[in-house]
Design a protein that fits this description.
It holds the Pfam family Methyltransf_11. The chain has 169 residues and is of the alpha/beta class. Helices cover 18% and strands 29% of the residues. A 7-stranded mixed β-sheet has the order 3-2-1-4-5-9-8.
Length: 169
């Protein structure tokens, strides 16, 4: 989260949500980085960091969060529904960061053999990509973080599907 802060995409005081938060490690990291009210959601509660809930039907109002993070996007049963819920709960101008792995990516319930991020980006219909970076050891295809910003209602994406986002093979 430090690099997102350095880029001005994550600021102290932001209201933050971690989707598919597990035991809450990402929630704790956000709290330690100046977001004391960060909360997680997962199918099992891990109080006080993670509330019980369905990641495909987030129990929060529209425009609730400045920042939404998920390290579970590529494990969602219905990635399109998760993307829609992330955008629904994210405030206009808010930032979403999705950690995805080429080995686990599930788009349309079929493993993506092309190691492309474009299908993931396409699921976020109301957001623009602002940053893409690989994380993990050099030469490893472990994970990529896709950072998106939610557009105002009625805006059109500046980066369409004509731009290919992919992992190196």
């Amino acid at each position: 989260f430090q690099k997102l802060s350095e880029r001005g995409l994550l600021r102290p005081g932001f209201k933050a949500l971690c989707v598919g938060a597990g035991s809450g490690h990402s929630v704790l990291a956000l709290r330690e980085n100046g977001l004391p009210d960060a909360i997680g959601i997962d199918r099992k509660s891990f109080a006080p960091l993670v509330r019980r809930g369905d990641i495909h039907r987030l129990p929060f109002a529209h425009d609730s969060f400045d920042f939404v993070f998920s390290a579970s996007f590529d494990r969602a049963l219905v990635p399109a529904l998760l993307a829609s819920e992330v955008e629904r709960t994210l405030k206009t101008g808010g930032v979403a960061a999705m950690l995805v792995s080429p080995r686990r990516l599930n788009v349309g319930n079929a493993i993506n053999p092309f190691y492309s991020l474009s299908p993931v980006v396409a699921l976020f219909r109301n957001s623009d990509v602002v940053h893409v970076t690989r994380v993990g050891p050099p030469n490893a295809h472990d994970a990529t973080v896709i950072v998106l910003r939610k557009l105002p209602f009625g805006s059109s994406k500046s980066l369409g599907l004509e731009q290919e986002y992919s992992w190196s093979k």
